[in-house]
Design goal:
The complex is a heterodimer.
Chain A: E1 4-7, E2 10-13, E3 18-25, E4 31-37, E5 44-50, E6 53-57, E7 64-70, E8 73-79, E9 87-94, H1 98-101, E10 105-106, E11 110-114
Parallel strand pairs in A: 2-11
Antiparallel strand pairs in A: 1-3, 3-8, 4-5, 4-9, 5-6, 7-8, 9-10, 9-11
Chain B: E1 4-7, E2 10-14, E3 19-25, E4 32-38, E5 45-51, E6 56-59, E7 62-67, E8 72-77, E9 86-92, E10 101-102, E11 106-111
Parallel strand pairs in B: 2-11
Antiparallel strand pairs in B: 1-3, 3-8, 4-5, 4-9, 6-7, 7-8, 9-10, 9-11
Classes of the chains: A mainly beta, B mainly beta.
Chain lengths: ~120, ~110
């Protein structure tokens, strides 16, 4: 299994809603990532979990709250989002640090629309 | 932090011709340089990568070259095919760092 699975594929939410994005991998990877991608832009790193501990937070607003319940799962909890947060949210995983082992495996993404 | 610039932003190439995409990076400590391909509506996928102890790497129609002194690296696609049409992102990272800094992307269109 070389897949990173994300749910839901599409999400529409109001600015007062609370929702969560979920990501799962069963490749035994110990690093998991959340990226945000706007149209026609590169993926922008938000968070990195390494061995289930948060290792990088790219100064992301607190309305985005990551959680890594175990080595296979990564969640992104959303609360009080703004319309400008509408984007494709990509989850990714790698064996350990990227430069040690190479490839980032991306999921298909969750397309979020904030009304 | 690392800054990666990528050119051109769009590239149209006749089928069968070659395509070249160039990137420059700012952090001399960066030592890992992958290229990702993202087809419309799909996930980014690694197509080739190179480490700083190597000057060139080839995989069938795709090659990457790295010039550490000048801090630039390039993607070369030969005998282009319609399925090569996509957005290509270069990226850079340094040892022990989980952060991958992406370039701004190149939209490659192969004209049949």
């Amino acid at each position: 299994d070389t897949e990173v699975t994300q749910t839901p594929k599409h999400l529409v939410m109001g600015m007062t809603n609370k929702k969560s994005l979920k990501c799962e991998q069963h490749m035994g990877h110990r690093a998991m990532y959340w990226y945000k991608q706007k149209a026609k832009k590169p993926p922008e790193l938000m968070f990195v979990y390494s061995y289930e501990k948060l290792s990088i937070n790219e100064s992301v607003p607190s309305r985005f709250s990551p959680e890594c319940p175990n080595s296979s799962l990564l969640n992104l909890h959303l609360h009080a989002l703004q319309p400008e947060d509408s984007a494709l949210y990509l989850c990714a995983s790698s064996q350990v640090a990227i430069t040690n082992t190479g490839e980032l495996f991306f999921g298909e993404g969750s397309r979020l629309t904030v009304l | 932090g690392e800054n990666v610039e990528q050119h051109p932003s769009t590239l149209s190439v006749q089928e069968g011709d070659s395509a070249v995409i160039k990137c420059t990076y700012s952090d001399s400590a960066s030592n890992y340089f992958p290229w990702y391909k993202q087809e419309l509506g799909k996930r980014p996928q690694l197509i080739i990568d190179i480490r700083s102890n190597v000057g060139e790497k080839k995989d069938q129609r795709i090659a990457v070259t790295l010039n550490k002194t000048a801090k630039h690296f390039s993607l070369h696609i030969t005998e282009t095919q319609p399925e090569d049409s996509a957005v290509y992102f270069c990226a850079a990272s340094r040892s022990g760092n989980e952060k991958l800094t992406f370039g701004t992307g190149t939209r490659l269109t192969i004209i049949p």
